[in-house]
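pinned: reference chain
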Amino acid sequence: MVFAALDAKEIGSLGAEYFLKNYTNKESISLNINLDMIAHSDYDPELFACGLFLYPDLRDPLEDSKSEKIQLLFGHDDPDNKEQSDWTFSSDHKVFHREKIPFIYYGVPDHKDYHRSTDTYATINTEFYIEAVKTIIRSIENLDEYLSE
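pinned: its structure tokens
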């Protein structure tokens, strides 16, 4: 596993572009997991895993990752679903997707502090964030087992 902290998402995912362009073993990347906006849930404790419409074989390992404290939902990746915005190209995972590398993007819908000066550590929903991280860790473990088969 490679953990990469990428920068410059807001100006065209320059960090992701640079990483993928300069990573010497790109063909060995089997999955991109992107965590973006996972610490804020204003209303219902919902975390979305986006990308499963495009890569449906990754869904089963995530079904076993669900939490009792937050809802792990799938969606925001079907361009024909008019009830949800399509997040396929909304964050750094788009760079990997364009290179035919499967992705799962974890995130929440826009919240009251999104892109505002109030989007700070103090406004993080700590309980939600901890449960989101636990859910994502279970997902990674399940996906690792699935992809290793």
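why pinned: The first strand starts at residue 32 and ends at 35. The chain has one domain: 9-148.
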